[in-house]
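In the design runs reported in the main text, the only information available to the sequence generator was the tokenized backbone. The following block is the verbatim input for one such run; it is reproduced so that readers can re-run the procedure and compare outputs position by position.
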């Protein structure tokens, strides 16, 4: 393990322009990640809304989409898309990218990384958004202290059946009678 701390082994980083190439590559990765995050959030939210829909025409394709893209390794997706995208798509990307974008993002192979990140991360974010949406909707409405005895309406996910082993959620509106305030607990126990 001494070779890791030996300065002679790290001389290549500081000789010539190697350090600046590494730094430029790091910033290109940050730019690709920022663009990927933006589109993944949008596409992941749309997938989540489709997945929790009661329409099977929307929920089943969204579920298949998420299951496929979440189970593929990200490096495989990026390499496959970078090498297998049709040349016409890459040329269209190269022609459509604005001139104010950094030079590295104007490379035609970057589209494979961008599309790969969006496909994979949108599937992961879809699952997160589904559980966030289901948990937010299942929280009962908070009532004011003076209206504690009034009924509170809230929506909760309810598993009514299973579709191919996967729970099928529906939304049920329930009238819940709020509990009456009890006497305060004795703090001197």
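Verbatim output:
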């Amino acid at each position: 393990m001494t070779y890791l701390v030996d300065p002679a082994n790290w001389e290549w980083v500081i000789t010539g322009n190697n350090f600046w190439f590494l730094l430029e590559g790091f910033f290109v990765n940050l730019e690709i990640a920022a663009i990927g995050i933006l589109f993944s959030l949008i596409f992941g939210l749309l997938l989540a809304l489709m997945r929790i829909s009661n329409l099977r025409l929307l929920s089943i394709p969204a579920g298949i989409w998420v299951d496929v893209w979440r189970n593929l390794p990200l490096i495989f997706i990026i390499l496959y898309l970078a090498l297998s995208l049709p040349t016409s798509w890459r040329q269209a990307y190269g022609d459509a990218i604005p001139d104010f974008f950094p030079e590295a993002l104007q490379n035609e192979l970057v589209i494979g990384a961008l599309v790969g990140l969006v496909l994979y991360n949108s599937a992961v974010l879809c699952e997160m958004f589904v559980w966030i949406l289901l948990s937010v909707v299942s929280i009962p409405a908070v009532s004011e202290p003076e209206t504690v005895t009034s009924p509170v309406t809230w929506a909760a996910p309810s598993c009514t059946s299973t579709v191919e082993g996967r729970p099928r959620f529906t939304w049920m509106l329930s009238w819940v009678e709020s509990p009456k305030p009890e006497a305060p607990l004795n703090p001197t126990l």
